[in-house]
Amino acid sequence: MDLFKLSIDELKKRIEENKEDAMLHYYLAKKLFSASLSKELMIEIEKELETAVKLSPKLYMAHYYLGRLYFIQKDFEKAEKEFEKVISELFSTEIGV
């Protein structure tokens, strides 16, 4: 099933049923990210992305979106750290480390 096709409400319901699924948290954050960037939504997006990377530290796209969010919030130090994780994960994956 394509999780990105699920609505925000459907994703939230699935997260309630399975709080340990990093991909559900990631897709919810990604869906919210594309919907709006109000201050309230940014807090929710950050929470979902932080949960996703905590559950699955190698989920580099969650790190990427977290870096973008921090950049938008002008927290450049945190953004840089997240982008470095993305680069590190992509590089280690590419060479098979």
Set down the secondary structure blueprint:
Elements: H1 8-17, H2 22-35, H3 39-55, H4 60-72, H5 76-94
Structural descriptors:
single chain; 97 residues; mainly alpha; 0% strand
Can you describe what's shown?
With 97 residues, the chain is mostly helical. Helix content is 75%, strand content 0%. The chain contains five helices and no strands. It has helices at 8-17, 22-35, 39-55, 60-72, 76-94. Helix 1 runs antiparallel to helix 2. The protein is globular, with a radius of gyration of 13 Å.
Give a summary of the structure in a few sentences:
The protein is mainly alpha-helical. The protein has helices at 8-17, 22-35, 39-55, 60-72, 76-94. The chain is globular, with a radius of gyration of 13 Å.
Helical segment count: 5
Give the integer mean of the pLDDT values: 88
Outline, from the CA principal axes?
Answer: globular
Proportion of residues in extended strands: under 5%
H/E topology pattern? HHHHH
Strand count, sense and barrel status of the largest sheet are: none
Give the termini distance in whole angstroms.
Answer: 30 Å
Task: Kindly state the percentage of residues in helix.
Answer: over 70%
Tally of strands = 0
- Computed structural class: mainly alpha
Name the poorly predicted regions: none
| Radius of gyration using CA atoms only | 13 Å
